[in-house]
Amino acid sequence: MYPLLLLLLLLAACAKVGPPSGGPVDRTAPQIVTHFPASDATSVPLDATVEILFDEPMERERTEEALFVAPEERLQPRWRGRRLQLPIDLQPDRTYVITVGTGAKDLRGNALEKSFTFAFATGDRLNRGQITGFVYRDHEPASGAHIWAYDLARFRGRVGNDPPHYRTQSGRDGSFAFARLAAGRYRLLAFADEDRDQSYDAGEWLGLPASDLEVSEADTARSGDLLLVAHDPPDIKLVRVQAVDDRRLLLQFGAEVDPAEVELELKGLVGEGLYGSPQDRKKVYARTEVQEPGREYSIAAVRVGGRLLKWQEPVRGSNR
User: Which pLDDT score is estimated for 8?
Assistant: First the structure.
């Protein structure tokens, strides 16, 4: 009897080992303890491995989503406990800017209070331009908003559609900063990444500055407040598809569209490009290979700004 009672007492004692239940919830934001290379280091060897050490274990997927490297790099991060390694193909005479955004979270879901940025150079000098500002939504500081910066001297794409040169996220107070920028003219864009795909999608809250920003080597450019507003995508419908001759199709929409945002997929017919009508922005023309007169071709998909439009009717090939 006594051995059995002693065993039960030991088991009960073992069950109580560990932190007491019902204690205070961890609300402490994670911090970056150290990193390599050091901030503003120059002449960094090209075979160096970038490392970031956190003060506690991190939620790896969310933290990787909040990593931004300029110039843009395809990252394959490696974790060693609290240490994050970023194998980057470093190039000679470049300034690199590493940002850990406020989307980075610890295992309790606590996010960084502010984006953390450090820069280094593989050459003997660093870029020194800066941009600072705040993001607001519904008159309140917008935490975790994505802010993109485009260097207009090196950019020929579409702002919001094409990847930027620099990325960061706003802190709890809505503030953001870009550091170590090359001198030049920049265009900013801020948005709330509701679906966490790290890109702006139609319908997400969007903020744009009043003008482009001129960045010098010595001064800090201030963007002013970026106000996020809801941008509901227009209710665009496809109302007609027809062949106008044996090498062109007409797509007519119920509202004006940007031909650059239109995508067309055909079955049995090769498309060769799209262009708009200067006289009517509701019309977009598709060049095709030579059509077979009278043959019915299926419309596999029509998208505008990434949104799939409904269309089921086939189009007949023209003999004109």
Answer: 47
